Amino acid sequence: xxxxxxxxxxxxxxxxxxxxxxxxxxxxxxxxxxTDAKDTQALHLYAIIAYRSGRLxxxxxxxxxxxxxxxxxxxxxxx
Length: 79
Fold this sequence. Notes:
Layout: H1 7-18, H2 22-35, H3 40-52, H4 56-73
Helix pairs in contact: 1-2, 1-3, 2-3, 3-4
């Protein structure tokens, strides 16, 4: 699968969150996740959006999904 550079999308998403434009940020996060449901950066930012919107159950769900994907992709450490 070809990976598209999403750096500008992440920057825009973080800016929207900082400016408390949570509805717009959620739409952008959803569009990123529609392309790649395992995008850990988008999952993390979506968790922040949900938290700041007061939807704690959704925030926890997205944070757990993100962490499980990070854990899966980490190489096994020899110690």
